[in-house]
Amino acid sequence: MNAFSRSLAATLIGWCAALLPSDRTSWAAAMKAEVDAIENGNAALSFAIGCVWGSIKERTFTMAFAARSVRFATIAGMLALSFFGAVTTGRMIDANASSAMVFGLTSALFGAAAGCSYLRRPMALVQTACSLIPFYILTYVFLSHEIRMAGAWADGRLYQALAIEGVVIWAAVLAGSIFSLRVETLSTIKRT
Amino acid sequence: MMSRRPNSSKQARAVLEALIARPEAWRHGYDLLQETQLKSGTLYPLLMRLADGGLLESEWHSPVPPARAPRHVYRLTPAGRAFARSLLAGADTRGPYLIGATA
After folding, report:
1. Cα separations in angstroms, B57 against A11, A23, A63, A138, B72
2. Which keywords are on file for this protein (chain A) (predicted)?
C-alpha cells in the first residue's frame, strides 16, 4: 500500500511541472523533492494531491488565464450565434424571405466578428461593438415608431426583439473585450 | 501599475508566523506544512507569492539522510521579516504585497 501510494504520489507530482506556468519550473522541482523526502506513502500522496491542486490554481486563477477564457468564450459564443442564425435563415427562407434575410445578415455579422476577433485581437471587437450598439438602439427606436404609426407590420415585434438581443449581446462582447484589453495593457506595463 | 492590497489571511499569517519564529533557519516545505497545518495546495502558492514579492528567499540544500535528493528550503528576507513583524503586530501594512491570493 505504501509503495502504491508513493508511486501514485510520484506520478501526480510529475503533473505539477506540466500544470505550473513555465516560470514556476523550479517550484515544481521543489515540490517533487519534498515528495521524494516524505517517507510515509499516504502523507506523500496527500502532499502530492495538494500540490496538483495548488498548481491548477496557480495556472488558472490568473488574469491572463481569465482573459484568454473570456476571449475563447466570446469567439465560441459568436460562432454559435452565427451558426444559429444560419440555421434559422435556412428554415425561414421559403416562409418569410425578409426575416430570413435579417437572420442571414446577423449570422454573417457574428461570423465576421468571430473571425475578426481571432485575427485582430479584442480591439476589433471593441470597435465593432461600439458601432453596432447605437445601430441596434436606433433600429429599436425606429421599429417602435413604425409599429405605433402603421400598426403591426410584418415581423416588427420580432425585429424589435432581435434589436434588444443585439444590444445585450454586443454589450456583453464589449465588456469582455474591454476586460481582455485591460489585462493585455497591464501585462505590457509589467513587462516594461 | 495597479496597487495591490495586502492580504492578511489566516493562512498567510500562519506561514509568516512559522517563518519568523526562526528567521535565520532554512525551512523545508513539508516542515512548514506540518507546523502550519496547511495543505500543500495552499502553502506553495503562498510561498510563491512571498518569493515574487521579494519577501522570501530559497535555496537548494544537499540531502541529509534519510533524504536522498536535494531539497528546496526557504526563509524570509530582511524585507520579509519586517513585513511579517508588522503584519503580525497588526500594524498598518499598506505596501506593494499581496499574500494569500493569486493575482
Report:
1. 28, 16, 25, 60, 10
2. Membrane, Transmembrane, Transmembrane helix
A51: closest chain B residue by CA = B41
HEC string of chain A equals CHHHHHHHHHHHHHHHHHHCCHHHHHHHHHHHHHHHHCCCHHHHHHHHHHHHHHHHHHHHCCHHHHHHHHHHHHHHHHHHHHHHHHHHHHHHCCCCHHHHHHHHHHHHHHHHHHHHHHHHHHHHHHHHHHHHHHHHHHHHHHHHHHHHHHCCCCCHHHHHHHHHHHHHHHHHHHHHHHHHHHHHHHHHHHHC
Note the pLDDT tens digit of each residue in B22-77. 999 999 999 999 999 999 999 999 999 999 999 999 999 888 776 678 899 999 99
CB < 8 Å to B45, chain A: 54, 57-58
CA–CA separation, B50 vs A71, rounded Å?
Answer: 30
Q: How many angstroms away from the CA of B29 is the closest CA of chain A?
A: 7
Does B79 score more than 80 pLDDT?
yes
Of the partner residues A26, A37, A57, the one whose CB lies closest to the CB of residue B41: A57
Band of pLDDT at residue A102, cut at 50, 70 and 90: confident
- Please indicate, yes or no, whether the overall pTM of this predicted structure exceeds 0.80: no
Say what the pLDDT of residue A64 is.
Answer: 75
A6, with CB counted inside 10 A (0-12, 13-18, 19+), is: buried
CA atoms within 13 A of residue B13's CA, in its CB half-sphere = 10
Instruction: Find where cell 524585507 sits.
Output: B79
CA contacts within 13 A on the Cβ side of A187: 14
